Amino acid sequence: MTQQEVLQEYLLRLADSDMILGQRLSELTGKAPAVEEELAVMNVALDLVGQARNWYEYAAELINDGRDADKLVFLRDAHEYRNLLMVEQPNDDYAVTMARQFFFDVWHYFTLKSLVNASDERVATIAAKAVKEATYHLRRSSEWVKRMGDGTEESHRRIQDAFNLLWRFTGELITPDEVDHAMFKAGIGPDPEQIKQDWFGMVREVAAQATLTVGEEDAWMYMGGKRGEHTEHLGHILAVMQFLPRAYPDATTW
Amino acid sequence: MYAQMVETGTKRLKTLEEMSPEERDFQEKVDAETKIEAKNWMPDGYRKTLIRQISQHAHSEIVGMLPEGNWVTRAPTLKRKLQLMAKIQDEAGHGLYLYSAMETLGADRDEEIQKLHDGKAKYSSIFNYPTLNWADMGAVGWLVDGAAIVNQVVLQRTSYGPYSRAMVRICKEESFHQRQGYQILLDMMREGTQEQKDMVQDAINRLWWPALMMFGPHDDESPNSQQSMVWKIKRKSNDELRQMFIDQTIPQLEFLGCTVPDPDLKWNEERGHYDFGDINWKEFYDVLKGNGPCNRERIATRKKAIDDGAWVREAAVAYAAKQKQRADKAA
C-alpha cells in the first residue's frame, strides 16, 4: 500500500466506527430508559455521524474515484466496512449499550487526542473538533458505568455481565496492525503502545470505582473488523441503513 | 396541535358575580393579559386543565419520536440522517421542557407518564398513524409540525407564564423542522424520479386528513373549549385554527405540484378562505379511543422503554444516595 492508501484505509476505519455506532444508537429512538437519556443518546449519535461525515469527506477526496461521502456509506457492502466489531454489537439492555459505549469512548478519546497533533493538517482539524465531543461522551459513559456498577444489585450484575460479554471485542481496539503502525510512523496515527496503556489505565480506573472486574489482557479476542471480516450483525445493519439508495438506484437526490 | 379535547371539568361558565373574590381577581388578571405564574392563586379547574393540556403536549413530543424512529435508521443520505436525528433530539428536549412546565403546577412527571401508559392520558391522534415511506418524514415535518405551529404560535400568548415561555422557544425549533420537512418533499418533486414523486403524493394522501384532525372537533362539539378560551389557555377555536392551517398550506401544496385527497377543496372568494370537505369524525373518535392503526404499538413501545429502564433509573438513584452518604461522612 502507498502512504495515501494507508491513510484512506485509516480514515475509513475512523469513519465506519463512528457511523455504525451512531446507527446503533439511533435504533434507540423512543426506547431509552428516561427522557433525559433520549436526549443524551441522540446527542452522542449525532456527534458520531457528524464526525463520520467529516472523515468520509476527506477519504472520498483522497480515493477520488467519483464516490462521495454518501456513496461510501450507502453503497459499500459489509466486507468493505472497516469498523471495529465492538460498535456493531446489538444494543441489548442498557448495560450492554453503555459498556459498548464506554469501551469505545476510552479508545476514541485517546485516539482523537493524539490525532489532534497529526502531521496531516486535515486530520488534525477534524480531530480537534471531534475530541471535544468525545470528551463529553467519555465523561457520560464513565459516569453511567459507575452508577450501574455501584448502584443496585441488579445494575451491578447487568453491567458486570455486559463487561464480560463485550470483553472479547476490546482486543481489536488496542491491537495494532500494519495500518496502525504505518500511520504512527507517518506522524499521523497515535503510538499503538501508548493507546494500549492509556486504554487499560482508564478502563481499570473506572472499573475499580464502579466495583467491577475487567477481563484478562491475554484473553481470547475476536478481531477482524479492521480488515473487513465482521460479525453477522453488520450485514443486517447495512440492510436497514442502505435500503433506500439500494432500492432506488436511479434516485440522485433525496 | 398536540393537545386535543382537553377536559376542563366545567359544565357551564361562571359569571363574574358568581365567582369568589379570588376567582374574580384571577379572571380579571387573565382578562388584562397578565400572565399567571406558578405561585399565583388559580382555580383548581384551571390548574387541572393546564396539567392535562401540557402533559398531553409533552406526551405527544415523546410518542411523536416513534414514527420518526421508524425511519431514522433508514434515512437515505448523511445530511437527511443528521437532520432527522437533530429533529428527534429537539423533540426529546421539548418533551423534557414541557414536563418541567407541567411540574410547576404541582404535577409529577412519573405519575403523568403512568397515566399515559394506562391509557388514561392522551397524546395527539396523529402519531397513531404509521410512517410508510421516506416521504412521510417530509410530510410529517411539513404538515404535522406545520399544524402544531399554527396552534403553538397562538399558545405563545396563553395565560400561564411557564407554558407560554415554553411555546416561544419550541416554536422557533418547530418552524425550522417544518421548513426542513417541506424541503425534503420539494427536492423529491423537483429532482426526483417518478417513484420518488409517487412517494410524496402517497405520503400527503395518507397524512392530509389526520393532520386536519389534529385541531380537534368542531367548535360546537367541543364543550371544553369555551372554558379554556375564557381562561385564555386556548386563544383561538379549533375551527379557526384549522382554517388558518389550510389557508396557509394549500399554496405550498400547489407549489409542490401535489394534490390533497379532498374533491371539495376550493378557494372561496367571498369568504376569503378555502372551503374543504367533511372530516371523517368517526375515524377521529376511533383513533382517540385507541383504535387507530398504531395506538397499541406506540403505547407498548413507550411502556416497554420505561419498564425496561426501571433498573437503570433505580441504579442512578442508589448511586447518588451512596455518593451523598460518602460525602456526608467525609465532611
From TrEMBL, chain A:
Keyword line = Oxidoreductase
Q: Does the keyword Heme apply?
A: no
Q: What is its EC number?
A: 1.14.13.149
Which Pfam family is one of those matched by this entry? PaaA_PaaC
Q: Does the keyword Oxidoreductase apply?
A: yes
Q: Name one GO molecular function term.
A: phenylacetyl-CoA 1,2-epoxidase activity
Against InterPro entries, the record matches this protein to: Aromatic_CoA_ox/epox, PaaA_PaaC, PaaC
Main EC class the enzyme belongs to: oxidoreductase
Q: Which domain of life is it from?
A: Bacteria
Q: Which PANTHER family match?
A: 1,2-PHENYLACETYL-COA EPOXIDASE, SUBUNIT C, PHENYLACETIC ACID DEGRADATION PROTEIN PAA
* Protein name as catalogued: Phenylacetate-CoA oxygenase subunit PaaC
Organism name: Marinobacter salexigens
Instruction: Supply the source organism's classification.
Output: Bacteria, Pseudomonadati, Pseudomonadota, Gammaproteobacteria, Pseudomonadales
From TrEMBL, chain B:
- Please provide, alphabetically and separated by semicolons, the GO molecular function terms listed in this UniProt record: phenylacetyl-CoA 1,2-epoxidase activity
Q: Pfam families this protein is in? A: PaaA_PaaC
To which species is this protein native? Marinobacter salexigens
Superkingdom of the organism of origin: Bacteria
Q: What is its EC number?
A: 1.14.13.149
Q: Which protein, by its recorded name, is this?
A: 1,2-phenylacetyl-CoA epoxidase subunit A
Q: What EC class is this?
A: oxidoreductase
Q: Which UniProt keywords apply?
A: Oxidoreductase
